[in-house]
Design a protein that fits this description.
heterodimer; A: 252 residues; alpha/beta; Rossmann fold; 4-stranded antiparallel beta sheet; B: 301 residues; mainly alpha; MetI-like fold; 0% strand; globular
Chain lengths: 252, 301
């Protein structure tokens, strides 16, 4: 089951560039939360702070409090532990090119030293079914490289790979932006099903997508969270003038 | 400031391709293609010529005895290079066992951990300098570091000399091949909660392994023919020896000794030895490539 995330006074820097300023919000458990905003507004940096991927860049730095359930992720746990509990799907599908489909899906367990064959087999099947890819690849699991799939299939395989480690939160950084409309709608259907079991945070440039999949939406601009509310409220009656300008297409 | 719109003519090309222009382009295309083919031929001709000449000069002296007998004393007919073939094998295996792991480990450090750090830059600089050290200097250094200390020549000293010559090539190719691994793949592993060291070994290194294997093979082939570093280390041996702490024969040394000798019979054996040396290098490189390509999956890279 998913957990909620409470963010308080989160600040992040790349070098001297202050990319996130005093972000505070509550992401509810087992719901999808969308983050929208123009390019470079900090929404990607924000999700990368939620699983401590931000700090993998040597010039990056973050301060503030991020609580996942009861765990303060910056003080109570190591980045490696956090990333096992918070799965991430990236903008472009990034399969491991030397691994089979099977090994790709199971890589999070295998690379962490997990070896029980029966459990691995079951996990591969469960994760691929959750990612709606099982029927398409079940005959080629160990024969084909993960990189041989189409872009949309690769992205669903990457989602299966993230789900295989049984995370509580799933972060998706523009997961459909490199995909065609058919693949995009498959990914959206998937988010709909997954949010009953996981807490989902999705960054998107596509406002219809945010409206379709998310209960709550946050609008970022220039490193600040301008407005965070129910998706319905954001899209029909935003409090802030800048939010209204953005969603009506007046800038960005 | 002029308010007139600026005509967009990138590279000064006319807007509509004329027939004359198209003729110029296809001529340029022919010339450049022709030059590339010529360059390829210039590279291939000496290689083919060397191989043919070696076969022409060496094949006649090749017989079973060449692979099964040790060198015959001066004046006697026959004899072979069995000890030198095995000796080269032993020295090269030892050199690879020492040089390749150290070289790859240093390359992984440079690419995955040492970027922009002082130690990383120092290691990279040292590797480049080491790559430029003449092989005779490497021989003298190992002579004073190992042979003088032990007070005898040995296969071990020869292996170490060749290992040190392999390290910079292996290190730099490992680093360069790892640099071609997309950052997104490392992020995928880190995002799954895989520790950084494990990501470096099981993901980055594995993805880059075809190129790294090529680098190791280049380093191997380069030192397989080295004579100078073995002169004061392995020394050479006219008799059968496979012990690591004794002087050992090696093909390049045996070729050198036979080629500068005044006897026609030895000259023929030197040509045969050169042919065998080249063939062994080609066979071992091919075997490693076949072995390395076994596990490659459909559609993988």
């Amino acid at each position: 089951m998913g957990v909620g995330i409470l963010v308080e006074n989160l600040n992040a820097w790349y070098g001297s560039n202050h990319t996130l300023q005093d972000i505070g919000l509550h992401i509810p458990a087992n719901h999808a939360t969308a983050l929208i905003g123009p390019s470079g507004c900090g929404k990607s940096t924000f999700v990368r702070c939620l699983n401590r991927m931000h700090e993998t860049n040597p010039i990056a730095r973050a301060t503030g409090t991020v609580k996942m359930g009861d765990v303060d992720i910056y003080n109570d746990a190591s980045p490696v532990e956090i990333r096992r509990r918070v799965g991430m799907v990236f903008q472009r599908p990034n399969p491991f090119p030397t691994m089979s489909i099977y090994d790709n899906v199971i890589s999070g367990l295998k690379l962490n030293g997990f070896r029980n064959r029966r459990v691995l087999d079951e996990t591969v099947e469960r994760s691929l079914k959750q990612a709606a890819l099982w029927e398409e690849v079940k005959d080629d699991l160990k024969k084909k490289s993960g990189a041989s799939l189409s872009g949309g299939q690769q992205q669903r395989m990457c989602i299966a790979r993230a789900l295989a480690v049984d995370p509580e939160v799933l972060l998706m950084d523009e997961p459909a932006s490199a995909l065609d409309p058919v693949s995009t709608s498959k990914i959206e259907d998937l988010i709909f099903q997954l949010k009953t079991q996981y807490t989902i945070v999705i960054v998107t440039h596509n406002m219809q997508q945010a409206a379709r999949v998310a209960e709550n939406t946050g609008f970022f601009l220039n490193g600040k969270l301008v407005e965070f509310d129910s998706t319905h409220k954001i899209f029909t009656n935003p409090r802030d003038k800048r939010t209204e300008d953005y969603i009506t297409g007046r800038f960005g | 400031m002029s308010t007139q719109p600026v005509a967009s003519q990138p590279l000064g090309l006319p807007r509509k391709p004329s027939r004359a222009n198209s003729a110029v382009r296809s001529t340029t295309n022919y010339i450049v293609s022709g030059l590339s083919i010529l360059a390829t031929a210039i590279v291939l001709v000496p290689l083919a010529a060397i191989l043919f000449y070696l076969v022409y000069k060496g094949a006649r002296s090749l017989n079973l005895a060449f692979f099964t007998h040790v060198p015959a004393p001066v004046g006697e007919e026959g004899g072979g290079m069995a000890n030198a073939i095995v000796g080269s094998g032993i020295i090269l295996i030892l050199a690879s066992l020492i040089g390749i792991p150290i070289g790859i480990a240093a390359g992984v450090y440079l690419a995955e951990f040492g970027r922009g750090k002082f130690l990383g830059n120092a290691v990279r600089f040292t590797a480049d300098v080491l790559n430029g050290v003449p092989s005779i200097v490497m021989g003298i250094s190992i002579y004073s570091l190992i042979v003088m200390q032990q007070k005898h020549f040995s296969a071990f000293a020869g292996g170490v000399a060749l290992a040190i010559m392999m390290i910079p090539t292996v290190t730099r190719t490992t680093e360069e091949m790892l640099a071609t691994v997309p950052h997104a793949i490392r992020e995928a592993a880190l995002g799954l909660g895989v520790p950084k060291w494990r990501t470096a070994i099981s993901v980055s290194l594995r993805t880059a392994s075809p190129g790294i294997i090529t680098g190791c093979m280049l380093a191997f082939a380069r030192v397989a023919g080295e004579t100078a570093p073995l002169l004061f280390t392995a020394l050479g041996n006219q008799f059968w020896s496979v012990k690591l702490n004794e002087p050992i024969a090696a093909l390049p040394l045996q070729i050198y000794v036979y080629a500068i000798s005044p006897y026609d019979e030895w000259h023929r054996l030197a040509w045969a030895g050169a042919l065998v040396l080249i063939s062994l290098i080609m066979v071992s490189v091919t075997l490693v490539r076949i072995y390395a390509s076994r596990g490659v999956l459909k559609g993988g890279s």
